[in-house]
Design a protein that fits this description.
The chain has 12 helices and 2 strands. With about 290 residues, it is mainly α.
Length: about 290
């Protein structure tokens, strides 16, 4: 299957799954730069990276075709937009394979395609927002903020641009502003578990643990198998000295998909906690023997 996330013939945008080398790669967006793609977990904070979806938002908002009455410039803009999405998806795939040079080249191609699309159709907010996600992937959060704010100026209720904006503030370590933006996003879309997860992660990063726990629990009410929320809640409880409760959430995170990076890390932590319990029991037995 080709790497396509495109308008259909009816000109609705479809966020399609991708198959490459027998593995399913779904457009999953830009990872929070403080942790970064492929880096190990930060044991002190233990946050799973943020999740944003730079092209999927077009399911919500790209204009419906008006048959043959649609101007040619808009049709050409859509074609360029699709080229940009293709390049962005391929860039993510190359990044996941450790091909930094290929990723950089494809991100530049995506950027040029989105810019050309905007010249043809300046109202194409999806292209404007995706310029922000390209900038995030290039670790240029200030450029990303400019792009996301421009998209929000086009549509003040454009949820995915707010999500990207908050992630850009996180890259800049402006956590207070990021939290406020995530809170606004959750208020606008209370039924979206990923937005709630991002809020919880930002609060946990800020060490506002009670609020972070409440955010994760709200996510799990919406989606009880939300793997990253389960994992982050487990780390929160573990760091607060509640290993038994943490173990239960690690188990649930593992059971939500042990083949994923989150599931594999949950399994590793379960084994580490089990070993710690065994070591503690062994030490207790040794002490009792000595006292006897």
């Amino acid at each position: 299957m080709r790497f396509k996330t495109r308008y259909s013939q009816a000109c609705y945008f479809q966020a399609l799954s991708i198959r490459a080398r027998a593995s399913r790669l779904i457009l999953s967006g830009v990872l929070f730069a403080a942790l970064g793609a492929g880096q190990s977990f930060n044991a002190a904070v233990a946050l799973w990276p943020f999740k944003a979806k730079p092209a999927e938002q077009a399911q919500e908002a790209l204009p419906t075709a008006q048959s043959s009455a649609q101007p040619e410039r808009k049709i050409a803009a859509k074609a360029l937009y699709n080229e940009g999405v293709d390049a962005f998806q391929l860039a993510q795939f190359q990044g996941s394979r450790g091909n930094g040079a290929g990723q950089s080249r494809l991100l530049n191609e995506a950027k040029k395609a989105f810019q050309k699309a905007l010249k043809l159709n300046p109202a194409l907010k999806e292209a404007q927002s995706n310029l922000g996600y390209v900038a995030l992937a290039q670790n240029k959060p200030k450029q990303a903020i400019e792009a996301f704010n421009a998209a929000i100026a086009m549509d003040g209720a454009y949820l995915n641009a707010y999500n990207g904006l908050a992630n850009a503030y996180m890259q800049l370590q402006q956590v207070d502003v990021a939290v406020e933006t995530f809170q606004k996003l959750v208020a606008l879309a209370p039924g979206n578990p990923d937005y709630g997860f991002n809020l919880g992660s930002a609060l946990q990063h800020q060490q506002r643990f009670t609020e972070a726990q409440a955010a994760y629990e709200a996510v799990l009410k919406l989606e009880e198998t939300h793997q990253k929320a389960l994992f982050n809640l487990a780390t929160l409880l573990q760091n607060q000295g509640q290993p038994d409760q943490a173990l239960g959430y690690y188990e649930r995170a593992k059971n939500a998909g042990v083949e994923t990076p989150v599931g594999l890390e949950a399994l590793r932590r379960i084994r580490a906690l089990d070993e710690a319990v065994k070591d503690g029991a062994s030490q207790d037995a040794s002490l009792r023997t000595t006292e006897d």
